[in-house]
Amino acid sequence: GAVVSQHPSWVICKSGTSVKIECRSLDFQATTMFWYRQFPKQSLMLMATSNEGSKATYEQGVEKDKFLINHASLTLSTLTVTSAHPEDSSFYICSARSGRGDQPQHFGDGTRLSIL
Amino acid sequence: DQQVKQNSPSLSVQEGRISILNCDYTNSMFDYFLWYKKYPAEGPTFLISISSIKDKNEDGRFTVFLNKSAKHLSLHIVPSQPGDSAVYFCAAVPSTGANNLFFGTGTRLTVIP
Known about the structure:
The complex is a heterodimer. By secondary structure, chain A is mainly beta. Chain A contains no helices and eleven strands. In chain A, strands 2, 4, 5, 6, 9, 10 and 11 form a seven-stranded mixed sheet that branches. In chain A, strand 9 and strand 10 form a beta hairpin. Chain A is globular. In chain B, strands 2, 4, 5, 9, 10 and 11 form a six-stranded mixed sheet that branches. Chain B has a five-stranded antiparallel sheet with strand order 1-3-8-7-6, with no helix packed on it. In chain B, strand 4 and strand 5 form a beta hairpin. Chain B starts with a strand and ends with a strand. Chains A and B meet through strand 5, strand 9 and strand 10 of A and strand 4 and strand 5 of B.
């Protein structure tokens, strides 16, 4: 149980393109979903937290107009990187949690984004 | 500011022996701790967690110990198996109502057959 599917797993695109990443909880309802970014040889850094039906809460330093998050249902959240540039190239990973903060987050397999 | 630290980037252990992975934290507001295992090109997989009201939690071969006074937790794997080879992350959740996980930088465990 507790499977989170993230799609696509790898994206290569030109600078200026917008890229959408989907995160789905397959066998549970995710009241909260999280988006992380991982730089090489560093730990996962939280970008934003989203609750179903409400606006995402962004961490300090994360541009909300750059990284659009939509959490339209209890099983789907999307992250759109708008007008992506090479510095946006990174590993993006989502997680989902049902219930309270003392429940574990379950992670997708991540998306490797490469902007040329 | 790294609030959760894993000072050993790598660890090698012989199959059948005990693996001990360590994690230190600085924020006294953390009250829930988790260990995740990560294989290359996959997302982290939840392994085991512990609440700050406990000092030990056991699940099969995996045991997590929490020393609140030292702000230290450890994951013991016994007996270690080659399939345990992966990167292990510890993570912490604060009690202040925030939802996010604070991750350590990970320890790469290699279990030698």
